[in-house]
Amino acid sequence: MVRIPLTAEQIERGRMLGRALRNARGARTMVEVASAAGVSVEALRKIETGRSPSPEFFTVAQICGALDISTDELVAARITPDETAIAS
Q1: In a domain, 12, yes or no
Q2: With contact defined as beta carbons under 8 Å apart, do 44 and 63 qualify?
Q3: Dist CA 57 CA 35 (whole Å)
Q4: Burial bucket for residue 75 (CB in 10 Å: 0-12, 13-18, 19+)
Q5: CATH number for the domain harbouring residue 13
Q6: 2 domain-assigned
């Protein structure tokens, strides 16, 4: 199966998602959050650094659960002012 390359916009969205998760993690370690979420530390690291720009929804949901935030809160945290007008 041929994998279609991601657009620059999709890659940037992945980076924004990673930054939002990293901010939500706060002082907690990657090991602590990954363990609580049931994902590998490497998976969490790739998402947080934008190296996995389109992670699976359920992986993100598990991480949100470990961080005690909803996916809605995560999306709100990563929306830029320019996107707010689009989202309304």
Answers
A1: yes
A2: yes
A3: 18
A4: middle
A5: 1.10.260.40
A6: no
Q: What is the pTM of this model?
A: 0.81
Q: In terms of residue numbers, what domain contains 46?
A: 8-87
CA distance 28 to 7: 32
Structural domain count of the chain: 1
Distances (CA, A) of 77 to 1, 16, 19: 34, 9, 9
> What digits encode the pLDDT tens for the residues 6-31?
899 989 989 999 999 999 999 999 99
At 32-71, the pLDDT tens digits run 999 999 999 999 999 999 998 889 999 999 999 999 999 9
User: CA 36, CA 43: separation in Å to the nearest integer?
Assistant: 13
Tally the C-alpha atoms within 13 A of residue 58's C-alpha that lie toward its C-beta: 1
CB 34 within 8 A of CB 43: yes
Residue 1 forms part of a structural domain: no
